[in-house]
Each structure stands twice: as C-alpha cells, then as structure tokens.
C-alpha cells in the first residue's frame, strides 16, 4: 500500500502544455486500467478530471487528457490557463475494493 | 443529481471513538462501491476504506486496520465509518465517495475529525 509517486511540483506558462506523471507498480497502476486524476483548489473538495485512465467526465475540458504506459500514468494539460493552478492527485485501483493515491503535485501557472 | 452528505465529525480525545455517516442519493446505491478518503491538514489525499455494493468485500489502509470498520445499509442508502482507538494522526477531513473501479466519481463535502487532548 505504498503511495503512488508524483512530482512534488510542475509549472508552465499560459498556453503551454504540462504533463504530470504518476508511477506505481504492477499491483496497482500497471495491473489495472483504473487510474483517475483529481484537481483540488485550496480549501475545496477534490474534483475528478479523469477516470479509467483516459475518460473525461462530463464538463471536464478536453484540454485535460490521461494516458498510461506500464506502471506509469500521466495527466497532460494543454493550453494552460490561470485557473488550472491547483494540486493534482492520481489514484489507482489496487484490487479487492482498495485504492491508492499519489502524494500530489502542485501545478503553478507562471 | 448525485449527492453525498457526511456527518458525525467532531473533536475527540486520543483513544476515543467516532462514527461517520454518509447519506447518498441520486443513484442506485446498492449497485456501487463506496469509499472513504481522508486529507490531513496541509497534506495529500489518502484512501482509507472501501466497501462493495453487496457489502461482501471491505478493505482498509494498513494504518487503520483493526481500528476502523466500514459498513453500509442499502435499505437506507447509508454508508458508515466506525472509528475506534483514534490517534492524533487520524485528524483529517473525511470524504465519502461513490467509487468506481476507475476512480471516485462523486465526493461529499467532507467532515472534519480532530483527535486531540
């Protein structure tokens, strides 16, 4: 049950693209196509941005995309906007109704 | 519209107990797994416990095994988290979530649990 590994911080300028990685093991990220991503602004409830590795829930802009290769999943945000500045967390199913989160990544829009 | 409403948080002394409740509406409750996720002050998200729709399967993060118990009442659309032997490091906002294998699709507003003497 070790936390997934995310970079502590990433940054980008408005209009640019950034990618946040999320590394796990064959028991979680690599074992299931069940990775999700959440955006959290300070003091707010986390908001789901990606489900099932790459599925965007209704209302999430298509600037947000997810992918996975082996034990590493990625969230890419294209056309960065000021309101994208937030903390981002990945999460993976780990079997038998258990999940594991990453440590979180702070995105700064320069 | 899916709604999840947590209650039961509060302040408790180390070693004490609390029972969190989550009232769900807007979906076929018994069909879906539910999870509790917590966030300590200034820290990241941590999955705490999950339960299958039919209540057969329940899992816990290692740090709460033997102290926390998740349960649900599908006739009342409720999920619970019974927390015993609480410690200072259990202090957090606890969120109730509607859980798909692929992620926590909906979140409640959270309830704050503070463990302090």
Describe this structure as you would to a colleague.
The complex is a heterodimer of chains A (110) and B (117). By secondary structure, chain A is mainly β. Chain A contains no helices and 9 strands. In chain A, the strands form 2 sheets. In chain A, strands 1, 3, 4, 7, 8 and 9 form a 6-stranded mixed beta sheet that branches. The radius of gyration of chain A is 13 Å and the shape is globular. In chain B, the strands form 2 sheets. In chain B, strands 2, 4, 5, 6, 9, 10 and 11 form a 7-stranded mixed beta sheet that branches. Chain B has a 4-stranded antiparallel beta sheet with strand order 1-3-8-7, with no helix packed on it. Chain B is 0% helix and 55% strand.
Helix content of chain B: under 10%
Class of secondary structure makeup of chain B: mainly beta
Low-confidence stretches of chain B: none
The CA-CA distance between the termini of chain A, in Å, is 35 Å
Estimate what percentage of residues of chain B fall within beta strands.
over 45%
Share of β-strand residues of chain A: over 45%
Give the low-confidence spans of chain A. Answer: none
The topology string of helices and strands of chain B comes to: EEEEEEEEEEE
Gyration radius of chain A, rounded: 13 Å
The count of β-strands of chain B is 11
């Amino acid at each position: 049950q070790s936390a997934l590994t995310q970079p502590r911080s990433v940054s980008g300028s408005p209009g640019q693209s950034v990618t946040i990685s999320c590394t796990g093991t064959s028991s979680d990220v690599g074992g299931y196509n069940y990775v999700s991503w959440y955006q959290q602004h300070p003091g707010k409830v986390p908001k789901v941005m990606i489900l099932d590795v790459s599925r965007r829930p209704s209302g999430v802009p298509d600037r947000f995309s997810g992918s996975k290769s082996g034990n590493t999943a990625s969230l890419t945000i294209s056309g960065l906007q000021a309101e994208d500045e937030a903390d981002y967390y990945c999460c993976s199913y780990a079997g038998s109704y258990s999940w594991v989160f990453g440590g979180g990544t702070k995105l700064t829009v320069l | 519209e899916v709604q999840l409403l947590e209650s039961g948080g509060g302040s408790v002394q180390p070693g004490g107990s609390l029972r969190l409740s989550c009232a769900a509406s807007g979906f076929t409750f018994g069909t879906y797994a539910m999870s509790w996720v917590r966030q300590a002050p200034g820290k990241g998200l941590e999955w705490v416990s999950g339960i299958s729709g039919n209540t057969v399967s329940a899992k816990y993060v290692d740090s709460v095994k033997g102290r926390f118990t998740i349960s649900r009442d599908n006739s009342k659309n409720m999920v619970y988290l019974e927390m015993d032997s609480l410690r200072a490091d259990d202090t957090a906002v606890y969120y109730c979530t509607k859980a798909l294998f692929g992620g926590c699709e909906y979140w409640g507003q959270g309830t704050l649990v503070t463990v302090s003497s």
